[in-house]
Amino acid sequence: MPNSADSQIADSRPTRLAPPEGGRGADTRERLLDAAEQIFAERGFEGASMRAVTQAAGASVSAANYHFGSKEALLRETLLRRVGPLNERRIARLDALEEDANGRPLELETIVEAFLRPVFEEHAASVDATARFRQVAARIYSDPPGVVSAMKRELFGPIVTRFVAALAAALPEKSRGEIELGFQLTVGVMVHVISGHLVTVPGQEEGECDCWTARLSDESVLQQMIAYVVAGLRAVSGSRGVAR
How far apart are the first and last CA of the chain? Predict the structure, then answer.
């Protein structure tokens, strides 16, 4: 684990995303958000600082305070910029499916696909734009301080509510607790895949992997994930491992 001196040295030399520009307003705000994705991905929430973000963006601390006010607000806007459209597509898919079903429970596979496919569509549309955000999401899920946990509930709460309800209708034999556990495990699988760990092999350096998973297309990975998650949701049981 790095000591405080190491952290100060690293903090003083952030990678610059772009040279300082004279523009203001929306341009500065977008540069700050781009830089925040990079810094949060590299250092996590606790390790990041507003000064590091502003140096990477070629902006002033006063500009960051004007646009966001705090590190917590900057992280929230960084996440919302990517998560907002993603969740809108998820809800739109689920709305369309439920409208077509006309009150009937949805097929489990279609619910899971409605949740997962927008992530792959986002990646296909703009690989460069989503790469750092995927790292930020993985970092936040793996090491969430209290403020980040509250932020996740705010940003993802409505999605959890809608999809858990749809899953409960598709799996009437499961308890609410079993459905919620299954959904949490689904999110865990998704974060693992989108953070790039699918092709990681212990003992190999990055880029050396010649494993089968490295040669799968995004669509193949998505279909494998859907099958895996559906089987897991059907298999999860609250009776397993209960203390007696």
Answer: 39
